[in-house]
Amino acid sequence: MTVLEDRPRPAPLLAGHKDAETAQLSAVRDPIAAPPPEVASWAVWLSRLGLFATAVIIAVERPGPWLPAAAFAFALGLAWAAGWRGRQLRNIAFALAVFTSGVNYLSWRFTVIAIGGHPLPGWIIGIPLYAAEMHAAIHTMGLHIGLWPRNPPAEPEAYYGRRFVPEEQRVNPFQYPIYVFVPTVDEGEEVLRPTLTGILAARDAYLEQHPYSEITVVVCDDGFVAKKPTVPEMAALCESLGVIHVVREVGGGAKAGNINHARTVVGADGDVLLGIFDADQIPRRDFFLKLVPGFDDPEVGWVQSGQFYGNRTNPVARWADDQQSLFYRLLCPGKAAHNAAFICGTNFLMRATAIDSIGGIPTGSITEDFAASIRMAANWRSVYFTGILAVGLGPLDLASFFKQQDRWARGTLNIMWDHWRDLLLPAPKGKKGLNAQQRAHYLLATTHYWCGVRDLIFCIAPTLFILTGISGVRGATATDFLLYFVPYFALSIAGFWHAAWDLTSWRCIIINYGSFPVLLQAAFRVVIGRKGDFTLTPKRRSTLSPWRTAQLHLIVVATCLLALVKLILRPGGTAYWLAGFWLLYLCMMSGMHMILVILDSRQDRKEQRELALFGGAAPPQALIPRPDPHQRRHRRRRPARRLPKPRTAFAGVVVGGAMLFVLDTSAMSAQSDPLHLTAASLPAHPFVGVGALATPYGGTGVEAIEKQLGLKFGTTARTQEIDDAFDYGWADSIAANGGVPWLTVVFSQNGKASLDSALTAIANGSDDAAINRWAQEIAAYGKPLYLTVLPQADRNYSASSGVANGGIPQDIPRAWAHIRQLFSQDGASNVSWVWTPGDPGADAAYTPPASQIDAVALTMAEFPKTTWSDPAQLLAAAAKQHPGKQLMLQVSADGTPAQRAAWLQKLATAVAARDDVAAVVYQEAGPVDDLSGADAKPWALTADAQTLAAFQQLAAEMEQVTN
């Protein structure tokens, strides 16, 4: 069923009329008077190569916070010298600072991704968490791509993306007939009449100045296809207003198919312009007068204007309009400046020849406008007009808003799958493809809606860490966090709000975060291949309670609060408190979204009362006056201050940047220097001792052996678990003989490893309470002490292994440094730190920094029926690997009496030949776990007289004090 008005096509303009039109065009089009200075292509590629090289250098070196500070100061000075001023000057500084801090953070963050773990491997959360952070960082840096300084037009309402066109190449855009299409399904007369009235008023204003032009208005009605009862109502409305009414009888292609069908019916092809308005978008009288001049460049394919909401008395519409303002007032001008503007579905004009060059409006996407933009951008230019030329209806409730977001998300994410070749691969031979800037902007747009998945990961990661100890980060310290994350985060926030000032409000951030549940659902549907149908944003309030839309947010808040309660009742280390602060941030964001839920709920009750008051005949929302967003109150701009002289300003920037460089470098140097505690005094001659045993010798074990040998040991070795307490009596008894106790603390419980035993858990603070207790007790002891932590960490049987249970070698130095830092904070400076690997001669991949080690321990356990080691060779290898370090020996042997005695004599000879051995301790039970069992007895010194005598001679040769 089609209703057509027989309207002739316009005749060609006469010569005199052409001159008149040209004069009018010159008066209104704000032309670009002169071409911009040309930049050689090699210079463009050289700058890109330089930026890439800078990113690589930052990623490799990770210089720390001084680099963003220096970049900010350098950019200010350079931009000032180049003539930039005001906001554009600051944009340059923020762009470079955000870029350098972002690359610096991401490169450091990559080095602390958790890979292993127990019971779940760390990569399950570590890799998704890093991907989420990378997504956020890339889009933060991408924002500044669009904000990169450009020469802005002098007028507040202006074109972005227009280029200089020589006079002889310009065309008269007013000669083109214009067809305006208004697609509708079931919006009804109360919505459509104001829109058509506004279009007709804009047509009249245009024809007053350009009487030889023509504008045809077409309502594309899909009510019949959708089985809606509004078709007769629309037909009567169109007849009363004198516009064409086209009804489609066969569906397909949703909005795009509807418009394509109407174009075919009215013959809107060839050298004409096409305009499209959504059913609720009311144009201003100067709509055509503002947009048509943009087509004086024959290569311009479309001119887009913004989409804003006029029903800002509605809380959801007001918050959604702030979100729209972020896109249309901040992002779109920058994209257009790089010839990467979008067709946004409404409030725009385009050439019929441009859209027909790709076969018409694409019908395979529910965001047909964006799909058309990507396909046309390679061959046609795009322009964006910054003024507000049309005002429409925003979503009336959260359910409608989320329905809108779901459609946009599904359509945009699907475009990534459908057009990834256009965005990522070179164009086929003989065809023109997108340039680098267009690819960057369109890739940022197609990946934006993954933010739903990103925000869910940001909610899960800290909660999982506090509740279970499973971390996506390994080995990061609080200092690392301050050096890398804080500068990046602070600069990103400051750069965003500097750019968005007076353009939008905090509400845009909250409502965008509040959308993550529906964006998550949209992403899931796209991944499983369910594109879904085209859905209209409802123009009436839905019956769904606002609180139903907030279910996931309520779950997030409840879970975060549960984790925070656990953190308060069972406090952990610094890493846990940092996770707690992030949970507070998430609670704040979800809590602020709850404000909108409450406002929407109040609005619902208010409208219900109005319906009851007027007997169900309250005026529909569409008829409420829609104020022009220009009338909204903005902060008053401060008067411009007189700028300082360039020379003075540049000098101040250089001096300030140098001071930041020196201060930050000094601070970083101080931090990067390893923690150095006062080492316990090492003996002039090696101490000799045994590993402490309970029995089978009677008494304390050690005292029984001393009695049999007739000497007092200079040291005794003891191993305790992390939950044990420091034995002051044991340590004091050794110190009373002039010796130094040797303590080994292992992160196990009842002989078994736990989640808190993992190196990442230690580095992230899971054991901080126990470590602090040990540090305080040892500090209270006050006398010198040898201390080993993370023993045999280079072996897979260690409780805190760097080669098993999810640990990797790089975890060991971080856990070691973290333990030392806690000891330093608690004043335990009476410790000599003993690094005890399985093979100290080949432990380069595992060892902490040399400056964090006071001594190195060798473990020699000789088993029966094996080839026994040469002590001299092992000592030489360890000394070569750890030059300048004192060596401490833990030895044991199980063999024939003669074999054991001979080996101990060989050991005594090797030790006597060196001056870097601090202690020799015989482990009475050898490697046997059950110290009192039968398996331990063959290892004991007193198992045979020959071994006991050999050890007694070894002690005597080392000048130990005897009774």
Notable characteristics:
eight-stranded parallel barrel, nine-stranded mixed sheet, single chain, 963 residues, disordered N terminus, alpha/beta
Give average pLDDT, whole number.
79
| Gap between N and C termini | 118 Å
Number of helices: 30
Question: Given the helix and strand composition, which structural class is it?
Answer: alpha/beta
Which strands sit side by side, in order, in the main sheet?
Answer: 1-5-4-3-6-10-8-11-2
| Total beta strands | 20
Low-confidence stretches: 1-20, 23-44, 617-684, 692-700
Biggest sheet record = 9 strands, mixed
State the share of residues found in helices, binned by percent: 40-55%
Binned strand content: 5-15%
Which of globular, elongated, flat, extended, rod-shaped describes the shape? Answer: elongated
Report the radius of gyration as a whole number of Å. Answer: 38 Å
In short:
The chain is built from 30 helices and 20 strands.
Q: Your description of this structure?
A:
The protein has 963 residues and is of the alpha/beta class. Helix content is 48%, strand content 10%. It is built from 30 helices and 20 strands. It has a 9-stranded mixed sheet with strand order 1-5-4-3-6-10-8-11-2, with helices on both faces. An 8-stranded parallel beta barrel has the order 13-14-15-16-17-18-19-20. Helix 23 links the parallel strand 13 and strand 14. It is elongated. The N terminus is likely disordered.
